[in-house]
Amino acid sequence: MTLDLPSLLRLAWDSVRAPREGARIIRGIEMPRTARWEALLLIVVISVILGQLTAFLVLGEPGLMMGPMLANPFMAGVIQMSMLVIMVFAIFWIGRAMGGTGGFGDTILLVAWMQFVMVCLQVIQTAAMILMPPLASLIGIGGFILFFWLLTNFIAELHGFQSLGKVFGMVILSLVGVAFGLSVILTMIGITVPGAP
Asked: I need a surface site. Which of 5, 63, 109, 148 has the fewest CB within 10 A?
């Protein structure tokens, strides 16, 4: 597979239509583990730049749309990268605990690829915000559904699971567990969410 932009965009569309097939193609890419982490970091950088650009074009001020913390590109990048790294480890270890067979390197690559597909949707949503604002909200809802669709299918393909329903249930329970764990850790080190009791 060639890694030029047109080929990546075609594969992104194919991954939306047939996620497990797309995941199989991505897993077939030969790439050192360090390069996989670098690919994930690159996608985060692109996503943050696009987010800042969107906020500037739509409102003229990123802070109005994203809040003071996310308005800082560095902080936004650190937060997004941290969440994706947590996702990589959670997908790998929880999947293995449930009898999955996926490799850690493939997990990194699939998370990076899922993020690339979401960035492609982010570009479409940005264009909609400028040209057809009401459509942007619908694209946002579609993006939320697409995220779980890709995540469920990618995990199933990665670990060799057959039941998408069971994988989706595992995803929801894992998200709740990780969110609870993070909230406990943040509370223990003295970080609280603004507005939280």
From this structure: 5
- Sort residue 124 into left (φ over 0), alpha (ψ -120 to 50) or beta: alpha
pLDDT in tens, the chain (197 residues): 567 888 899 999 999 999 999 999 999 999 999 999 999 999 999 999 988 888 777 766 555 455 555 567 888 888 899 889 999 999 999 999 999 999 999 999 999 999 999 999 999 998 888 888 889 889 999 999 999 999 999 999 999 999 999 999 989 988 887 777 777 776 777 655 444 44
Q: Half-sphere exposure (CA, 13 Å, Cβ side) for 190?
A: 0
Q: What global pTM score does this model have?
A: 0.87
